[in-house]
Amino acid sequence: MSDAASIALIAALSTLAGAGITSWLSLLTHRHQARHQERLRGLERSEARQDQYRTARKEAYVQFINQAVRTAHAIGAMVKPDAQVSEESYLDAAVQAQERLAELWPLLALVNIEGPEEVADLADQAANALVAEGAKASKMHRDPDSKPEFVAASRARWQAQRDFVRAARDTVAMPVPQGENELLVPPRPPELAA
Description:
The protein is built from 6 helices and no strands. It has a single domain, classed as Four Helix Bundle (Hemerythrin (Met), subunit A), CATH 1.20.120. By secondary structure, the chain is mainly α.
């Protein structure tokens, strides 16, 4: 074989090898990019699902809280701290309180479904505290001397609602990504840093 043909053959083989290596590297790069994009899509889907769960929970919690507050107001209408409530006003308020309490149970079930268990337990406690407060309001209407029991039941209900709200808020709060905490905390002045 002549020198020119040998050189041409070597040049062709090196060009072919270069094209093969380039194609192979291009394929690896494309695979890497495709895997990276798939991971990003998976993360986006996961975040979207988490947002849906968070939104559903938040809606359930808000509905429960609103109904619990309406129920507490209806129970409060059954008794007046400094005045005697007429029997007719008491009965109207008691019926409304029972209706509000009946509207609370499906929302309590929704909170129990949405969870988590700690929040569901606190919702149960708030609902039970409303029932107890209603019973003490009825007792106070008949026996004004039982006002301290009603006040204690009202305080217990208020605390149960606050505990539920705190736990619900913590559950639906958006977690702060690492590194963003520094942005939320003001830097310490140099003289206090030492």
